[in-house]
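Thread: "does anyone have the structure for this chain?"

Original post by V.I.:
We have the sequence but no experimental structure in hand. Need at least a predicted one for the grant figures.
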Amino acid sequence: MARALGRIKQACSVALVSLFCLLPFSFCLASDEGIRADLPSTGALRVENSRGNVKIEVWDEQYVSISTTIEGAQPVRSPVVIQRTEQQLNVSITRAPLGTLARINLILKIPERSRVEVSTVSGKVEINGLPAELNAQTVSGDIRAEIPTASDANITAESLSRAIESTLSPSELASPARSRFPERLYQARIGAGTKNVRLNTRLGRIVLAGAGTPSRNERVAPSGNVQDSAAQIQNPTQSPAPQISQTQVPPPQETRRPPELIGSNQQTHGAGTPANDTGAPQEVDEGDVIRVDTQLVTVNMSVIDRSTNRGLTGLTQNDFKLYEDGAEQQITRFESSAAPFNLVLLIDLSGSTREVVNLIKGAALRFVNAARAGDSIAIITFANTPVIVSRLTNDRAALRASINSIEQPKGSTKLYDALASTINEVTRDAGNFRRNAIVLMSDGLDSVLPNVEGEGSAIDYQELLARVREFDGVIYSLWLDTTYEPLSELDVQDETFDLAHDRMKEVADAGGGIFYEVESLNDLAGVYERVVADLGTVYSLSYTPTNKTRDRRWRSIHVVVSKPNAVARGKRGYYAN
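Reply from O.Q.:
Generated one for you, tokens below.
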């Protein structure tokens, strides 16, 4: 059954966020208004809820109040996670355990100085008041913003499927001539327009309404029954002068058996260091992420001639200069583009007919034929669960026999789970081998997306993206265009196909690889061969950073190639954890 449809509403109960606070008391306290959390000096606040609605009210207090309402069965542990860094306060809801339908709604009261970023999947977003900055986005939920009439706002609102509704009286209203559907784009200025408001939904409605300016002394009544006490707040032993503190109540963990990826050569393994699910948060806007293994950092860079867009081979270590945060580093280990790779084909077979499976088999066989003799290859297919068709091996005959044995699968699409599981297993068995690539072929339609049938992945997309960024290898994504004209609102809509496309591209960007659009399965074999050709232009550079401080901050990496018109492409940084 589609996850976005057919759910019966459960009885609604109201609950306070019950947290064990790992922040200093000045950052997080229980109060009559809910859980209290202090904003950092930047005012940055990020709110994510993939399991329900978000309601935000701007109030006179200088701290953030957080509470919840729960529709359905009460969770065993609080699903709310609060994380605070020097730069940003993060509030999110953990992913739902399998079989859980409870809806968790977040209610926040925030200071006017807040710079807020809100995101949901199908949940509604409501904003009452105007913070210093507002950015709200949702996949299929509605957005309602009540903005004080006596305010200064620069508003951009866009829905990809419905007309914008507004009762505002703006000082200036822009004409969205660039849009095919002008009624779906609203751009206006109120007053001086000093505060930016950006609202975006793919499938939902956006309603803009005026609101009277509340009194400075007016208090917003708490939403729901408050049942907190000081006993719920714990102050753990902290290391001296911590850079980042966090609060997290983990969701119940399911027992999962991920696929094994073990190379035939026991001295040769996969890539990098494992993602740290419970590590301190540090969001980065400026690029993709790699991980540090002890004090050695390795980057895999593809080098092309920008004038011809063709890969450059035959380069030596002397042709490269590598900079970290602007400081040149000494390259201590260099592997040329001719060095072998561990290659993992991750193939989406969900919804495939026998004829489609045969086409995919043929394309995979051509990939094996195109790969270099020294490359090891593994094949994994997935629909509901990952299936190891072949572990890493150089035996081409065995690979061909394994590919020919691929069967038509059953079940829904759990793309995110399959990719995360593959990353984890390759990472776990990596050792010191750092030339690894995952080549993902899919239409991107994980069953968590709106109107996609079946039970979707357990892992949240943003969590998956973090693991992709931390993966010490290269990830290529091949998006198969399965778009069709929907016959009704129960079918997968064009907007969902667009979202799947965008996420597949984002995975390739975060993974340091290339995104390919495959218009039909007949083109798949040719695209596989292009991937093999690109991997033949990848050089691996390792160095020991001169800045040895482990301060959990972002380190920017820039690689310069001395050849004319040469440009290096790959991941652009790491966390100094």
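V.I.: this helps a lot. The two ends are 42 Å apart (CA to CA).
O.Q.: and Residues 1-32, 213-294, 485-490 have pLDDT under 50 and may be disordered.
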